[in-house]
Amino acid sequence: MVAPEEKKMKTCPNCGEIVPVKTKVCPNCGQILGGRNKYKQNWFKELTPTEIFLIILGSIMLGVFLVAL
Q: What positions does the domain Putative zinc-ribbon occupy (predicted)?
């Protein structure tokens, strides 16, 4: 049989941390808990160095273009 204290806990789908049911944000990873989470937090941590380089290069090129106008 499960103790009542254990029923009031849930697991974070992102990091696996066990948190109280009423918790809205995981204290370990910052994942929004409950409801629909349309966007993943910390998406930028999954970028490769090539993607980061291309984002920076694109931003610089856009800035040069806007200054040239």
A: 9-31
